[in-house]
Amino acid sequence: MVYLKDNNSPQQKSAFKLISSFLPEDYELFLSSLTIDEYLHSSLFILKHHKIPVPERFKKVFEALKTILDLQHLKIVNPSDSKENNLKIVDIMQNFNLNPRDAYHFLTMQENDIHEFATFDNDFKEVFTKKYLKHSE
Taking every annotated instance into account, which residue ranges of this chain make up the domain PIN (predicted)? Predict the structure, then answer.
């Protein structure tokens, strides 16, 4: 999402091409609240780095987030609220060499029966290698 909305990113074209490839089809797109949080954090950081004034940063982030949330077939999913499932995070971190946030992304995908994951992040290599998720890049 960051690359998609960052006009200065060298990955913007790749991100746009990837998202565009899903839109005309009958794909369901999923975002978790964790992903939205990461997007907001990264976007605000980038805008701060580019010395965009604070009020304009929030306006830009709001407008970009709105266009993302308006994507056709987009659904918001959330991490588990089950204590038992949250205990799985440590095993996921250990088994797939993931940081806590990425382990929560993976758990959220498992709980929502999501089998494909679009990312430019290499942290999920073991998940893809072990064929738990199909990688779209």
Answer: 3-127
Domain boundaries, the chain: 1-78, 79-137
> Is 9 within 8 Å of 2 (Cβ atoms)?
yes
Residue of 78, 76, 77, 128 whose CA lies nearest to 98: 128
Count of other CB atoms within 10 angstroms of residue 69: 11
Max CA distance (Å), the chain: 45
Closest alpha carbon to 31 in 60, 58, 4: 4
Is this prediction's pTM over 0.90?
Answer: no
Q: Confidence band (pLDDT; 50, 70, 90) for 81?
A: very high
pLDDT, tens digit (0-9, with 9 covering 90-100), for 33-79: 999 999 899 999 999 999 999 999 999 999 999 988 988 788 999 98
Q: Are 105 and 88 contacting, i.e. CB atoms less than 8 angstroms apart?
A: no
Tell me which residue of 116, 76, 110, 67 sits closest to 92, measured CA to CA. Answer: 110
What CA–CA distance (Å, rounded) separates 39 from 103?
A: 17
DSSP 8-state assignment for residue 69: H
